[in-house]
Specification:
The chain is mainly beta and 306 residues long. Helix content is 13%, strand content 44%.
């Protein structure tokens, strides 16, 4: 889709003080995990292992983008919904942005789960694409984790865009889940309960350091209409994955009327595991360690009409 063809909506988000956010998250996460530590730190170099991101940090004019959406995937995929990372960076008023998050890709015409991890190209920056994708081989049903060198994604994307700088971030460490909510939902519901109708958005990366997690991977586009949640669940390929897993995540406390996906997380482990994160399956063993920043704006690109 050409830049001028993509409708853009924008809203400002509430940006609390980082120390305040830490206190709010500390309290909310303690209702769901036995061990919780939330504090403000200087972002480590995220290009290093285990994170292996394309930029050192997640600071510098952070904003979220919700591109396309599930309505373009069901009941049958609209394959003409093609988006360009460089274009998205320009549309969110940050040319050359570092972008991470979760979306849908296409490798050799096959639908796949995309883990965007890319420094986009502009007049002032050279691109660096370290994205990965999880795809199901249609010949044998085997999961493959591939380097994703394309500058395009398809159907949908939930993204954090920033300048890729190191700076103050929220460090979250939790372990031994005692409640029912997954890690991301627990943070989002905590923010929703505390801030009410003030939308607060977070983006960042976290590790599942130990334990196991339930993931799904989309196979190739369905040839029959997906008309219900049951149809979608039958189409998706679910699996249990071992830690360590690197997760790329965005969330917003509530939808301020833009038809948003309020949370979305994809994860990978080098070149042998990956997909869409649902929740951990080993509550007594699991541990999470992540870094997040509050976003200043939410951009809604190409909102589905229904």
């Amino acid at each position: 889709m050409a830049t001028q063809e993509i409708p853009v909506e924008k809203c400002s988000l509430h940006v609390p003080d980082l120390d305040e956010l830490c206190r709010v998250l500390q309290k909310g996460l303690s209702n769901n995990f036995k061990n919780v530590s939330v504090k403000t730190v200087e972002c480590p170099d995220l290009t290093q292992k285990p994170f292996t991101l394309a930029a050192k940090g997640i600071s510098g004019s952070p904003r979220l983008a919700d591109v396309g959406g599930v309505p373009y995937l069901v009941p049958l995929a609209q394959r003409d919904k093609v988006y360009n990372f460089d274009t998205v960076a320009s549309l969110v008023d940050l040319p050359g942005a570092f972008i991470i998050g979760a979306g849908a890709g296409r490798l050799c015409t096959i639908n796949c789960e995309l883990m965007p991890n890319i420094v986009t190209t502009s007049d002032c920056t050279h691109g660096d694409n370290k994205s990965r994708a999880a795809m199901i081989c249609p010949d044998d049903g085997i999961l493959m984790i591939k380097q994703y060198d394309l500058n395009e994604f398809y159907i949908l994307g939930n993204l954090l865009a920033c300048e890729g700088k190191q700076g103050p971030v929220i460090e979250v460490k939790v372990s031994k889940r005692s409640g029912k909510e997954n890690f991301v939902t627990n943070m989002r519901e905590t923010l929703k309960a505390h801030y009410g109708d003030k939308p607060v958005g977070l983006g960042g990366t976290f590790l599942i350091e130990s334990g196991k997690a339930k993931l799904h991977v989309m196979p190739d586009y369905s040839q029959v209409p997906l008309n219900s949640d049951a149809d979608v669940d039958s189409w998706l390929k679910f699996r249990e994955a071992d830690a360590p897993l690197v997760c790329l995540s965005v969330l917003i406390s509530h939808d301020p009327g833009l038809s948003l996906r309020v949370e979305h997380t994809h994860c990978f482990r080098q070149f042998n595991e990956g997909g869409h994160y649902h929740y951990d399956t080993t509550p007594d063993e699991v541990s999470y360690h992540g870094y997040f920043v509050p976003a200043e704006y939410m951009y809604r690109l190409d909102r589905p009409p229904t």
